[in-house]
Design goal:
CATH superfamily: NAD(P)-binding Rossmann-like Domain
Helix content: 40-55%
CATH architecture: 3-Layer(aba) Sandwich
Strand content: 15-25%
Radius of gyration: 17 Å
Strand order of the largest sheet: 3-2-1-4-5-6-9
Order of helices and strands: EHEHEHEHEHHEEHEHEH
Distance between the termini: 34 Å
CATH topology: Rossmann fold
CATH class: Alpha Beta
Length: about 260
């Protein structure tokens, strides 16, 4: 796969886990990266680690549920690097909650981050890409919970299914400007949040046909393909990275 030299990327929710790995690989591949996280300290630490590995990366705090914040991320990338070519809407909340007891305030917060944030970040990035000419890449982070139901993840799964519809719907708006938009839908993935839970790992190892949950590197590899020149004729699609789980279903309880 060709590198990303000369490209400018913004990756949201990238202070750790999948987002951090995507940002790291883009930067090591030659892109200049603006790394966002709601936790500005975490963003700073992740960006510093990427710079130590030889990549060019700046940190930016900000809550993506605020439209001004996501527009500000695009403006900051353009101010620092002159343009934006790659926009990765990775930021998201995972919210467990039984449907019969789900609280409206939690629901609104979930939609604010997972949908409002992704939609208006994509809009801000696409507007700038249109002005620049030359096209661009937008990537959304969905989930297998948008394909199969998991206990207590009804609201979360709805947001992830909506992101996949967003990728399909925006093909109409973005293709005339040579901007592609796709999604990656990870299955169970080892992150700092899950790595310390042996029961989680054991449960998903049994439930995943390939015999292990995904790593952040597995998901990042799929993401980088969709952001690359090699995926220039791929748009409106969702690439599922789940070790075969959606082919068979069946999740460990509260995994």
């Amino acid at each position: 796969m060709a590198g990303f030299a000369g490209r400018v990327a913004v990756v949201t929710g990238a202070g750790s886990g999948i987002g951090e790995e995507i940002a790291r690989r883009l930067a090591v591949g030659g892109a200049r990266v603006l790394l966002n996280d709601a936790d500005a300290r975490l963003a700073g630490e992740a960006a510093a680690a990427i710079r130590a590995a030889g990549g060019e990366c700046r940190a930016a705090g900000g809550d993506v549920s605020e439209v001004a914040a996501v527009r500000g991320l695009v403006d900051e990338a353009v101010g620092a690097f002159g343009r934006i070519d790659l926009a990765v809407a990775n930021a998201g909340l995972t919210e467990y909650g039984a449907f019969l007891d789900y609280d409206p305030a939690r629901f609104d917060r979930l939609l604010g981050v997972n949908l409002r944030g992704s939609y208006f970040f994509a809009q801000a990035a696409a507007r700038r890409m249109r002005e620049q000419g030359g096209g661009g890449r937008i990537l959304l982070l969905s989930s297998v919970t948008g394909h199969l139901g998991i206990e207590q993840l009804s609201a979360y799964g709805m947001t992830k299914a909506a992101l996949e519809m967003m990728a399909r719907a925006l093909v109409v708006d973005l293709s005339p400007h040579r901007i592609t938009i796709n999604a990656v839908a990870p299955g169970a993935t080892v992150t700092p949040r899950t790595a310390g839970d042996p029961a989680w790992t054991e449960g998903w190892t049994r439930a995943t046909p390939l015999g292990r949950p995904a790593t952040a590197a597995d998901v990042a590899a799929a993401a980088l393909f969709l952001l690359s020149d090699e995926a220039g004729h791929v748009t409106g699609q969702t690439l599922v990275v789940d070790g075969g789980w959606t082919a068979v279903g069946g999740a460990p309880e509260r995994a």
